[in-house]
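Pinned message: reference record for DNase I-like protein
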Amino acid sequence: MSKRSQVTQESGDETFQPAKKVRRSSADVPTDVRSSTPSSSELRSPFLVDAPSQVVTVISWNVETSAPFLDLHPRKLVSYGVTSSKQQKPNVLRQLITRHNFPDFVCLQEVRGRHGDSQWIAALAAAANGSEGPKYTAYTSLNRATRGQRHFGVVTYAKNPSQIAVAREVEWDVEGRVMILEMHSGWALVNVYALNGSEYAWVDQRTPQKATSKTRNQRKREFNKLLLEEVKKMRARGLRVILIGDFNISLTKRDCIPRLRTEYPHALARKEFNEQFIPQAAVVDIFRERHGDKNEFSWFAKGKPRGTDCARVDYALVDRRLIGNVVESAYLEDPQERAHSDHAPVLLRLRDMDRIKQE
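Predicted structure (tokens):
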């Protein structure tokens, strides 16, 4: 049985029963958020076109932390473990959303919240919305620890929640790394923040005070296997699956500068992902499928010249049956797009996603 996601709704979608609802009206949107809509002179998306209504746009972004665009008092940020009380203004998330013409879905990783952080969750839900434009519903999967440092966490914003049949977390993830939206039309969007492997011990967030026998490298491989089984189950139910987010694996040598980590256990995790996960999930790395050997990256080491230390660890893995639906896959590498984060947003656009069941 799957866990229901925490959700903030702008409208009365009764398709599923979320664990918790926080209702907000446009009048509840903080002033700072309302005033953050960029002017026409600001950076515009090079991929912004007058798309037909059936084109679905998805943006995925590892934000590193959501604190800079949350409307919370500096003291509250400090109480949540944010070391700097200085907020970045204006709201860079809202700017990203507006600049790219209000995408249908916005998937964020590393939002760094817990299930019990009620004010943080409310601020996170409000961050995507302004005084103008469509209102987004936020579906969160957050760390279930009750103490210790705040890490991990994903949120998926949906512009039109009525198209969602089920929003759910998965029972085997207690860190807040997976958020699944299953659509009435027959496809599923999976927001993923996979583990970054190391030889440090993996901490089970249900019992953080107890040491485990697993390293983070071991849990990383286990996580990928569990995610693969989740995809297989959705495919068996007839869903066409799109996974998007930060997978913390560079797939090939051309996805890293200056070099690919080829030592054990990184090489083993990559081998299993390339030779087991991708073929058994029946998905493709859609950026490579469309752009071949083109060099674009999603992670950039801070403090180093651009292009000297970078990797492509964020991407979209698209069901093979949906390759023909893909309009574009790109990385928004411009520093203004990345804002405070060391990751660049990923852009994915697909057509005719409302017609899948009729095919």
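Pinned by admin. Summary line: The domain at 6-358 is CATH 3.60.10.10 (Deoxyribonuclease I; Chain A).
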